[in-house]
Prior knowledge:
The chain is an alpha+beta fold. It has two domains: 58 residues, no CATH class; 89 residues, Lipocalin (Beta Barrel). The chain is built from three helices and eight strands. It has an eight-stranded antiparallel beta barrel with strand order 1-2-3-4-5-6-7-8. Strand 6 and strand 7 form a beta hairpin. Helix 1 packs antiparallel against helix 2.
Amino acid sequence: xxxxxxxxxxxxxxIEQHTFITKEERVDMQRxxxxxxxxxxxxxxxxxxxxxxxxxxDKPTIVEKAKTxxxxxxxTWAGKGFKGRFITFHFKxxxxxxxxTPEAEYTNGTWKQYDNAVFAETNKHYTDLLGIxxxxxxxxxxxxxxxxxxxxxxxxxxx
Length: 159
């Protein structure tokens, strides 16, 4: 464990002891050290994960469960949103969100999917949406910068 201790604790002390480096170089080195610490943490988690979630008692592992939920990339969903207004969302590749209301259409949103949970934002977080996918239905909560909150439900549309 000596190497892990050195990796996580002693490197910053060695940097502080060297006065021949500039403050900017010290900040850059701290960033590198932070990345090294994150890599160490990821390596530890990856080595621990198979034992922690390995399908005991015929339960699916996290990886197997994630495979059962399809990505919404390339799909279109529509329904009533804020104030009962009809809206259509097209979840494009690379997290780009295109949406259309009866008045206009925009491509200034982003989205992320975590298993069956979806987070989307429009217009630099003017509106945020958080929902859960269940089959061909996505339900959730929305909120905006004015403090409004609402429930919404969208249905998956055929191409």
